[in-house]
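Same chain as my last thread, 114 residues:
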Amino acid sequence: MNEPKIELFDNPKPQRDYVIKIDCPEFTSVCPKTGQPDFGTITIEYCPAQKCIELKSLKYYMQSFRNKGIFYEALTNEILDELSAESKPKWMKITSKFTPRGGITTEVVAEYKK
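reply #2:
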């Protein structure tokens, strides 16, 4: 199965710096060690340059992790790498916050600066 393609649209105000914040509160992936599902919220914050991320394609992209075995740190950086490569923002930050497992919560933050 092919990974969903991130679609973009023209930034309506490329001359202005502003931040777009997107929350994905129903994110799921799979722990590669236990095979158990991981549940969390992925927050995407970015300052667009010429293009903005289209939300429907983003939803399908996020759903592509549903059955993927991947550690939190790797998935946070993978999302940042792929979204920043596609959209070429001025700045982007990905925050992954996962529900407790064994009494421990995990939050991973990765940032891209042009």
